Amino acid sequence: MFSGGLDSSFISLILKQQKKDFTCFSVGLENSPDLQYAKEVADYLNLKLKIKVLALDKIEKDIKKVIEIIKSKETVKVSVALVAYSALELAKENNVSRLFSGLGSEEIFAGYQRHVEALKKDFKALHEECWQGLKNIWDRDLVRDYLIAKHFNIELLTPFLDEEVIITAMEIHPSYKITNENKKAILAEIAEDSGLGKFAWRKKKAAQYGSNVQKAL
Questions:
Q1: Calpha distance 61→83 (Å, rounded)
Q2: CB within 8 A of 32, min separation 6: which ones?
Q3: What is the pTM of this model?
Q4: Which are the contacts of 148, defined by CB distance < 8 A and separation ≥ 6?
Q5: Given a cut of 90, is residue 143 above it in pLDDT?
Q6: What is the distance between the alpha carbons of residues 128 and 9, in angstroms, rounded to a whole number?
Q7: Where are the alpha helices (DSSP H) in 122-195?
């Protein structure tokens, strides 16, 4: 699931360096930021990329399917789920049975605004906010995405939630995770040094905004 952001681009870079055969799947409305960045990063890293440009009439039909699958009409949850649904549908059309997701990166590397707010208190508060996010990710994100993956009979892989990755990331001092200019700073530095270049520093846009699905709703 490829947005051209730090998480999906770094996963793709590692797969590329491991000489794995894989395809990136990107979805969004026409001229959406995610489609633009996905094309640029795919060109930079020489990745196989398949794109689906979402149309309003298709989104209108898919909303009903998504609500039925995730058993929720909450706006944010539905908008994020629509992006996942579209990407997984595209993968299924291409006979893919396993798909990587960047879920978990924001929690362990402090990628949300709430992490910035916690840091205003002190480093301990930031560290505790990261742990709290991990505790909440099951109900907030994983159930939603895994229900959609199950619908398409696709196995969802979440490398940032690997136990060793979590332990390693949470042993890093919080001062390395947020700088004056950037969240997830240490992950971006590692990605840049590993070969992602300037694309490691793309400012995060939540899936529903980067794809412009929120505008579609």
A1: 13
A2: 210, 211, 212
A3: 0.94
A4: 66, 69, 70, 81, 84, 85, 88
A5: yes
A6: 27
A7: 123-137, 143-151, 163-170, 185-191
- For 86, the token pair is 């579209």
Structural element, H or E, at residue 99 = strand 98-100
> Under a CB-based contact definition with an 8 Å cutoff, are residues 84 and 151 in contact?
no
CA count, 13 A, side-chain hemisphere, 169: 26
Region 109-120 average pLDDT: 95
Both structure tokens of 145: 């995405």
Q: How many Cα atoms occupy the beta-carbon half-sphere of 53 within 13 Å? A: 5
Asked whether the predicted pLDDT for residue 130 surpasses 90, the reply is yes
* Tokens (6 digits) for 143: 């159930």
Rounded to 10°, the helix 143-151/56-70 angle is: 110
Query: Which tokens is 49 given?
Result: 């990329």
CB-based contacts of 162: which residues, under 8 Å, 6+ apart? none
Query: What pLDDT is recorded for position 47?
Result: 98
The amino acid at residue 59 is I
Question: 164 pLDDT exceeds 90?
Answer: yes
Residues 6+ apart with CB under 8 A from 182: 188, 201
